[in-house]
Amino acid sequence: MFGHHEPEASHSHAQQVTPPPPPQPQSPVDNTPSPEAGQEPSEGDTVAIVEDKRRRNTAASARFRIKKKQWTLNLERTISDLSGRVQELEGEASELRRENGWLKEIVMLKSKRLQGVVPDLGDTSGGSTLQNEESGQQSPPLGGGSGEGKGKEKQSS
Q1: Can you tell me which residues the record assigns to a coiled coil (predicted)?
Q2: Is 141 buried (19+), middle (13-18) or exposed (0-12) by CB count in 10 A?
Q3: Rounded to an integer, what distance in angstroms lies between the CA atom of residue 49 and that of residue 63?
Q4: How far, in Å, are 32, 134, 139 from residue 37 at the CA level?
Q5: What are 9-18's contacts with CB under 8 Å, separation 24+?
Q6: Predicted confidence (pLDDT) per residue in 74-90, tens digit
């Protein structure tokens, strides 16, 4: 019966109680005799301690250099990737600006035609521009058809 209630208790208290920290690994420094223990390290022990410290420091330096090199390579890779992405986005922005200019030109020409400022050069029957647009026929804009050609170029790409 006690075993049956134990899982419920552990579930309800699991969020409130923190587990004890894992035991810390013993380092070689802990194994060295301390002056408080009443023994002074001998000269041979002191040399061994210094050599061990130097060896561990050299190994730590090597690990640091390796990590630094990996971090640098990763950073360079990120820079390269982001530079490529920047070029893509700049090209896309340029293309969108160009397309926006074409669309503005088309809107302005259509607006002027509806106001009667610019005659519809493609309409020889005397009908209105609106009737031509409703029938699906498009007149080339003024300026040698630059608006139409650019629009078709955009659609093909």
Answers
A1: 72-106
A2: buried
A3: 21
A4: 10, 103, 103
A5: none
A6: 999 999 999 999 999 99
